[in-house]
UniProtKB/TrEMBL annotation:
One of its GO terms (cellular component) is plasma membrane. The lineage of its organism: Bacteria, Bacillati, Bacillota, Bacilli, Bacillales. The keyword DNA-binding does not apply. This is ABC transporter ATP-binding protein. It comes from Anaerobacillus arseniciselenatis. GO terms for molecular function: ABC-type oligopeptide transporter activity; ATP binding; ATP hydrolysis activity.
């Protein structure tokens, strides 16, 4: 928790002001019972109205001071808590942005969303309570007991005995609460996960009539969240009955022995009233503890979850810098005995892969599902790092390059065409923020999407729905390709990103890419696509089992012949 609270260091001045004002408010509250005792003993019992007016006036004046201190304290407490929350969220978001894919695999998306929102909110609430009431409550208890001892130490001993019992109960409650509220946050992760999957897959759910199944799945996770929350809150709600029982018994004992002391002229009525007043304020302070404890338990659980993200060591370290300059990068790629396995798995998905690609060549990668095609792609921009071997860009190991420099040379079109909320123009400009309108149109024309865009209601200013829901699969793929081409990349990675396109459109895109003079890698299942490549890599079980041009592979690779036959519906054994 200390790691998360260290973000408060930037707000020392407003914190000190808030605490000072809280002490002023506390001081006024602790003095009030003394004034009440004086008004009763020296004013009301002696029929002296002047004493009542003087001390009553002082009480009203101090109350106004306490009221003003409380209002200003609330302002500073809110300022600190909201600014603190902003800083934690920003730091969390920046940390997640620096994650490699291996780091991201540790945390489900729904869990990261919960940590960035709900968990941060829990700690914000605690910070506000700490500056507004949390620090005041224990001080009011301590101050109340001290002032009660000053007024009448014999009767105040009753409070001295009761306080440790309540404190021990609170400590036990807090230790139990932290574990329970951590479980609550984890169940909230699960609910968010189900909701996210359900909303993103709504079309599929309706098409397959899975509404009832999804309702049952959500009801199950929602019920688990409810049960965990009820268990946690039930424990916290024990506070008030126990508190009221102990404090009311204490007040009864004070009144019992107090009446005996008054009858024996060992105490004044005002003293008894003051003691009851202090006991009531202490009871109120302890009732505040129930809220503080719940807030602290939830915040402690949340801070542990936030610290888990902040403490993650990013396993992709930046290189010292490239010997190359952006203007001199040509795009030669070499894989030298590259092997790779995903984190927390034993099986290698790529095994001793070696090949050379000259600048401006087009390489097609063909293979069955699970053969390692996409994994190979992800190693080039260092989304993952190789486990053994090395990848070279223009004869320099990519691990020695700055990640920003390396990725600037690459245009990447992933398997799933992912668009963002905003205009068509903004989505294309994702590839190059300061792109001119001419560059945007040029990229759109190369991706064969320009004509579609000009027929939209606002053309390039047309707003896309979330994830491009108002576009077809082929249109989304072409926009993704335009986003990559606008960068004028030296290396272009197309991960099965023409699967939704007809052969004619695909051919035009590949022709436009050829004119860009970039080294192009294409993952595809279409023989018509690989036929135009300068080289074809045929992958099976993470290994290159054959490579060469189309005609070469038709002569020497039975697997390639089989793939060709499956698409052309003819037997090609002995071809050529």
């Amino acid at each position: 928790m200390l790691k998360v609270l260290s973000f408060l260091k930037s707000y020392k001045k407003p914190i000190y002001i808030a605490l000072l004002l809280m002490f002023v408010e506390l001081f006024v509250e602790l003095l009030s019972p003394l004034f009440i005792a004086k008004i009763i003993d020296e004013g009301i019992l002696k029929n002296d109205l002047s004493v009542v007016l003087i001390w009553g006036g002082i009480m009203v004046g101090l109350s106004l001071v306490g009221f003003a201190a409380g209002i200003i304290n609330s302002f500073y407490s809110a300022h600190v808590s909201q600014s603190f929350g902003y800083d934690v969220r920003k730091s969390l978001f920046d940390k997640v942005q620096s994650f490699s894919f291996a780091n991201l695999n540790r945390f489900p998306t729904s869990s990261l969303i919960t940590r960035l929102t709900n968990d941060v909110t829990q700690i914000q609430v605690l910070v506000f309570m700490a500056l507004r009431i949390a620090a005041r409550a224990p001080l009011l208890v301590i101050g109340g007991v001290v002032m009660a001892l000053i007024v009448n130490w014999r009767l105040a001993l009753i409070l001295v005995v009761a306080m440790p019992l309540l404190l021990l109960f609170m400590v036990w409650l807090m230790s139990k609460g932290v574990k329970l509220f951590r479980a609550v946050q984890e169940k909230l992760d699960a609910v968010n996960s189900v909701m996210r999957e359900n909303l993103s897959g709504m079309r599929l759910i309706k098409a397959f009539l899975r509404k009832k199944h999804e309702q049952e799945r959500f009801a199950k996770t929602n019920h688990e969240l409810k049960d965990e929350t009820v268990t946690a809150l039930r424990l916290i709600e024990l506070t008030m009955p126990v508190l009221l029982l102990v404090m009311n018994l204490s007040i009864l004992v004070i009144l019992w022995f107090g009446s005996a002391q008054v009858n024996a002229n060992q105490a004044n009525v005002g003293e008894i009233v003051a003691l009851i007043n202090y006991a009531t304020r202490i009871m109120f302070a302890f009732s505040v503890f129930s809220f503080i404890l719940m807030g602290f338990a939830r915040a402690k659980a949340s801070s542990a979850r936030i610290s888990e993200v902040l403490d993650v060591e990013v396993d992709l370290t930046d290189g010292e810098g490239s010997l190359l300059k952006e203007s001199t990068v040509r795009g030669n790629i070499q894989f030298d005995q590259v092997s790779f396995k995903y984190p927390n798995t034993d099986e290698k998905v790529l095994k001793e892969i070696s090949f050379d690609v000259r600048a401006s060549e087009t390489v097609a990668i063909l293979g069955a599902t699970g053969s390692g095609k996409s994994s190979l792609f992800q190693l080039i921009p260092r989304l993952y790092d190789v486990n053994s071997g090395a990848i070279y860009l223009d004869h320099q190991n990519v691990k020695t390059m700055k990640l920003e420099f390396l990725r600037k040379q690459i245009g990447y079109v992933p398997q799933e065409a992912r668009l963002f909320s905003g205009t068509v123009k903004e989505n294309i400009c994702w590839g190059k923020e300061n792109a001119t309108m001419d560059e945007i149109v040029e990229a759109a024309k190369a991706a064969q999407i320009h004509e579609t865009i000009v027929n939209l209601p606002q053309q390039y200013e047309t707003i896309l729905g979330q994830r491009g829901v108002n576009l077809s699969g082929g249109q989304k793929q072409r926009l993704s390709i335009a986003r990559a081409l606008i960068r004028k990349p030296k290396i272009l990675l197309l991960d099965d990103s023409t699967s939704a396109l007809d052969l004619q459109t695909e051919a035009k895109i590949l022709e436009a890419i050829k004119k860009q003079s970039c080294t192009t890698f294409i993952i595809t299942q279409k023989i018509s696509t690989v036929m135009v490549a300068d080289n074809i890599l045929l992958l099976e079980d993470g290994m290159i089992v054959a490579n060469g041009k189309h005609n070469d592979l038709m002569k020497k690779s039975p697997l390639y012949q089989k793939i060709y036959a499956s698409q052309h519906h003819e037997e090609v054994v002995g071809h050529g």
